[in-house]
Amino acid sequence: MAPKPPQPMDVLIVGAGFGGIGQAYSLRNLGLSMKLIDSLPDVGGTWLTNIYPGALSDTESFVYRFSWDAEDLRTYPWSRRYLRQPEILAYLKHFVERHDLRKYMQFDTELLSAQWVEESDVWEVRVSTGETYWARYFIPAMGVLSKANFPAIPGFESFKGRITHTSHWPADLDVTNKRIGVLGCGASGVQVITNIASHVSSLTAFIRHPQYTLPSNDRPITPVYRTWVNEHYDQIWAQLKASFAGFGYVESNRPFFSVDPGRREQLLEDLWNNGNGLRFMVEHFCDIITDADANNSVCDFIRRKIHQIVKDSEKARKLIPNERFARRPISNDGYYETFNRENVSIVDLKETPVEEITPDSIRTADGTCHILDIIVLATGFDAVEGNLLRVNIAGRDGRSLKDTWAEGPKSYLGSFAAGFPNMFMVNGPKGVFGNVIPAIEASIEFITNAVQRAESAKEKHGSRGVVEATFQAESGWGERCEQAAKGSLFSEVKDSWLSGGNVPEKPVGVRTYLGGLGSYRAMGNSATKDTWEGFVPL
Ligand code: NA7
Hints:
Blueprint: E1 9-14, H1 18-27, E2 34-37, H2 46-49, H3 70-75, H4 85-98, E3 105-106, E4 111-117, E5 122-127, E6 132-140, E7 162-165, E8 179-183, H5 187-196, E9 202-207, E10 213-215, H6 223-242, H7 261-274, H8 277-282, H9 292-309, H10 313-319, E11 330-332, H11 335-338, E12 344-348, E13 354-358, E14 361-364, E15 369-371, E16 374-377, H12 386-390, E17 392-394, H13 401-404, E18 431-432, H14 436-461, H15 471-486, E19 512-513, H16 517-531
Parallel strand pairs: 1-2, 1-6, 2-3, 4-17, 7-16, 8-9, 8-16, 9-12, 10-11, 18-19
Antiparallel strand pairs: 4-5, 5-6, 13-14, 14-15
Helix pairs in contact: 1-14, 14-16
Bound molecules: ligand NA7.
The site of ligand NA7 has 21 residues, from helix 5.
């Protein structure tokens, strides 16, 4: 038998972004010993490193924050409809200081491995500082969009200029008057292109596959609006937590074809003018992402808008998607208008794929060398399970997470994994799709419920305090996620980060619960608080 590890701590959290901070907040008053580690030098997670020009959350400011601290909600300042990266980072730091959470945190400490020690019901965790920790509860909160996706293009190392991924933008990178190439046109690419075009010498957008993007209509908020929000926060959160996507507005129950074509056009126009891609998807119609014909009509509407805005018809052609409007929608702050600038051009990678990077250019298949000073990779993320599989995690019988998830990640309620006792994933694979902050909060609540229940069982009847989802519950949850995805056109798009197809070799499949935040919260809270359904008895 292995020796009993010395003095395990109760809780070890990995990650100081929204997930880890929220989890530490939620557990802080339970009388447990707790540590939070992060490989980065400070609080912030993804919002500490995604400092590219234009980085912003397209979830509206009033609900891109924790819902738990009523006084803070009413007093913390924000001035615009959306929060930019510096404001989000400042909010997270503020929340940490306000609740005295920094005392749990240790930075510049990367998780290397975690192994469940059967005999003593603890996790043995090795980190980059050379230390080993033992913890009863191991809580990875490592982010859904965190591990960068680097394209495999020959010649990277030969490039004499600078190359950066948007998610690791160097603080000293100055693009002024430089020749810039941007690969990728998801949310990050759209934001960076729109924000740097006016002060670079030239910008070449390398587009493999254009996406639909809607105006964000960012604007300052008025004092009247802020007062209204403050006075209605209770109702706002109650509505949001019971809603489908959790973005803080009432989702429509109007079918697209229930109104006549003229009125439909008017409603779409209204959505376009009011702004926000997420609102566009759900605020006036209930079936844009479930009814293929409704979706086609909406695609036509957006395509017409692109044609109207982009004056050069060749550029417009390259910007117009010919797929469904069924990815995580993107909002923009003048993206299509940016392509009317003479210093902005487009290379369509479907016509002329990238062949290699040379010392001063990206060379495409037609032999053209696009001369560049800086290459920006806006190429997205090895999302959802990417960060969890980067490290070596082994559960019961030494079985690794990598082997267990060889055909795609699994979970119970996005937070628990069968065979990995007392490992709780904050917003892990098959967590709910929607506004990520309430999704994180829901997962944190399930985890805290489970910890409280285990602690109470230990105290009351000498339980070992081991929380473990059953294999049956895990596969049942997987089926529920499959069923929910079947009703959504999102599942037709196989090459997005949501299905895993954006990263070569990654198994493609359902990675989120598309059944809505309201039902997710109801099922998770009922299982972890009341019924204990899906868990091995404590
Ligand atoms: P996304 O949405 O995954 O977008 C990545 C972009 O990078 C997309 O346009 C990809 O084109 C492109 N890409 C990826 N690999 C390559 C290669 N090898 N060559 C050319 N282009 C490539 O990531 P984002 O960071 O923009 O946004 C992620 C989420 O963050 C977003 O949904 C919001 O929720 C916040 P492709 O479509 O694969 O042809």
